[in-house]
Amino acid sequence: MTRKIKLASGLLLSFATAAPALAHTGHDTVHNSLMAGLTHPLMGADHLIAMIAMGFWASTFAAKQSRSMLTAFFALLLGGFTLGLAGISFSFMETGIVLTSVMTGLLIATRKNVTQGLAVSLAACFAMFHGFAHGLETAGSVPFLFATGFLMTSATLVMAGFAVSKLVSHSIPSASRLIGLVIAMMGVSLFSI
Predict the structure, then answer these.
(1) DSSP state, 138?
(2) Global pTM exceeds 0.85
(3) Model pLDDT for residues 25-45, shown as the tens digit of each residue
(4) What's the chain's Rg over C-alpha atoms?
(5) Taking phi first (over 0 means left), then psi (-120 to 50 degrees means alpha), and beta for anything else, what does residue 113 get?
(6) Alpha-carbon 33 to chain mean position
(7) Residue 54: which residues within 8 A CB-CB, separation 6 or more?
(8) CB neighbours (10 Å) of residue 61?
(9) Contact between 68 and 120 (Cβ < 8 Å)
(10) What residues form the membrane-spanning segments (predicted)?
């Protein structure tokens, strides 16, 4: 495990287990907002699968291209969140969320050579769906804290997928195709939920 992954995991664990001092009023809402953001990505299979799949897929590219993809991904995750918070309606949101896992899994499984522009565009589009859903689900929370929490957990999940991909590619290179197919099938199974 790299130092960055250990640090991010430690921070996530620290935030998840910290309790408010409760010496003043208002801490319950603040604490609940951060906790809701931290745990929300872990509660839905769609988001969990998509974040791990995105990290896995991003690791298959060269470092510069991978950074571009992940920068676009997190920027549009936050952008989608902002739009959702504003209450802007978005057709096919649920379908887009599920297709994120299906398409990313298939791209991993087929090892399709995708140009940097297309990879960045797909990553940004996938993130928009997920961010938008998070923005709509923020009711009753402090938006900044909820966003901080869900971005931290999302980043941890993406880094976990990235790390698993690197580990698999060095030890069992052929397993990547199977993992991609499993991700795609898990995505397809979400259509029935």
Answers:
(1) -
(2) no
(3) 344 466 688 888 899 888 888
(4) 17
(5) beta
(6) 18
(7) 70, 73, 100, 104, 123, 126, 158, 161
(8) 17
(9) yes
(10) 47-63, 70-93, 113-132, 144-163, 175-192
